[in-house]
What does this fold into?
Amino acid sequence: MAGDGEEVRNKQVVLKDYVSGMPKESDMCINTESKIKLKAPDNAVVVKNLYLSCDPYMRSRMRKLDSPSFVDSFKPGSPLSGYGVAKVVSSGYPNLKEGDLVLAWGTTGWEQYSLITAPETLLKIQHTDVPLSYYTGILGMPGMTAYAGFYEVCTPQKGERVFVSAASGAVGQLVGQFAKLSDCYVVGSAGSEQKVDLLKNKFGFDAAFNYKEEPDLDAALKRHFPEGIDIYFENVGGKMLDAVLANMRVHGRIAVCGMISQYNLEQPEGIHNLMSIIGKRVRMQGFLAGDFLHLYPKYLMTVLPYIKENKIVYVEDIAEGIESGPAALVGLFTGRNVGKQVVCVAKE
Amino acid sequence: MAGDGEEVRNKQVVLKDYVSGMPKESDMCINTESKIKLKAPDNAVVVKNLYLSCDPYMRSRMRKLDSPSFVDSFKPGSPLSGYGVAKVVSSGYPNLKEGDLVLAWGTTGWEQYSLITAPETLLKIQHTDVPLSYYTGILGMPGMTAYAGFYEVCTPQKGERVFVSAASGAVGQLVGQFAKLSDCYVVGSAGSEQKVDLLKNKFGFDAAFNYKEEPDLDAALKRHFPEGIDIYFENVGGKMLDAVLANMRVHGRIAVCGMISQYNLEQPEGIHNLMSIIGKRVRMQGFLAGDFLHLYPKYLMTVLPYIKENKIVYVEDIAEGIESGPAALVGLFTGRNVGKQVVCVAKE
It folds into this structure.
């Protein structure tokens, strides 16, 4: 396939300009004119992208970020980039060969083929008896986020009361299932009846509620946690966080994974109930999965058997074709996706 | 002294009613009519109060608190209570005898004499070659707060950049000195030139600023911490916390000890920069000294030599006479005190 410099057309999802407010499909365009040589130079690989991951953190990269930040801004006029599953089509890097499947840890382009000049960031996929797309979700960054956030940051004890927001999302659905495997009581919130149904009937949450139908979040939490919350896995921020702070138990823990409700606001909402963390000795901790990559092999060994034995299930929302990328990404911020949002660029 | 039921007059500082907004001296009154028998019943002691501690957390007890809370409301019509140094004048409790000096851990009354019915909460003072009043400060709850908050919660490393707000107060002045003893760079904020001078010239802070003279707290912090803050010892909350959140370094820690700027507001100010704790993986932790009481003997053994060798200094603001109690307590919230505010009820 990779002749000495065969050049092919390479469709890309390009950011047109920095975005303010809610991102729209029209903030991106499909560039059909770009071309790429399918021959990798030394110490680089060329990959064919199969599955691209739509992740909320990508919103921050659509604005001009002050440096230093933990991520870079996307470059207007260039394709987006992120996590994805890809196949090596040409390798100038000794540790990878043509045909290898890889998980790009935040480093592949939103395009059909990518030249990866830092191939040491690619993780070679060893286990292919599960859906390949899972490496953008349960077997990738979101999975590690749920695992490290729940076990390492929240340090759960049997019987503790766990609350997860955005609970049917890529990360939340796993946190809830980990919590049940740890004999915790777990309640999730989500934004539609369909998602609430998934939480209760597919992921095994003890209870769930649709936050859009709750005029008083504090009352909703008090109904589900009359004795308070030990662990909050924070995905949304804003009013939900404020309501949770008013309902934490002594020595509670809050793993701050994301605050998706705030990403499109010019000025984030104010949080008013922080003072309560003193008397209740609450620990609130921001974290990124990338700090726990040393646990990834252990995580895979733990979660692969659970998947095969159906002890953990994973719901994905797969959009077909790279042209669907802008809509799929934008949909994260209106909650259009049900489960982990993936873009399938090619099946193999 | 303690005849079989000798009854003496017992002046008290009484809370008149629950307080909203900024507390005023007139929210309290001096009751000169109360009497007390100086003979302790079985399993109780009667103490003569020598030094009473004025602590910001007492503000919360002046309002009607929802239960459960980590403290109870004061009872309108009854004396305040809190931390203090006292002398046993009559004992029905085998572990204490007449003449013993004790540190009451939150449990003595704002009055000349108190009947203590839970004498097991009293810590017998063993070291009397330091000012007795220190047991309300550096050798008491504020000292343990600084010690546990800095060493246990903030886990400082040599060379780290530490910021302390309310830095000349009972706790802050110690945090700054502990930070210097740990080879950290430490900057403090306070509310007057006199206090800033103390920070720099008496407590050995590397730098200090008067927050009231800084129109832009973010700019003030950037001036003192061009590379950001590793450790923030939080005593004030509100706008200062928001400015600090914007200036934390990756893997920074915030020990949340108090938020004195918020205690008299009907609705706490909103905190807008919490989202930054995700990308920077900041840990924010509320704590109370009471959770670290097991470390108190170790702390005393550490700090007593430092005091005697003048390696740590401690500034107190001592109001004379129980009648000065209301003004002393209220003064905490306007920053009138310079150093640890104590009320001296009697010298012995």
Remarks:
- Residues 2 and 38 of chain B are 5 Å apart (CA to CA).
- Chain B has a mean pLDDT of 96.
- The interface with chain A takes residues 60, 69-71, 237, 241, 250, 256-259, 262, 267-288, 291 of chain B (CB under 8 Å).
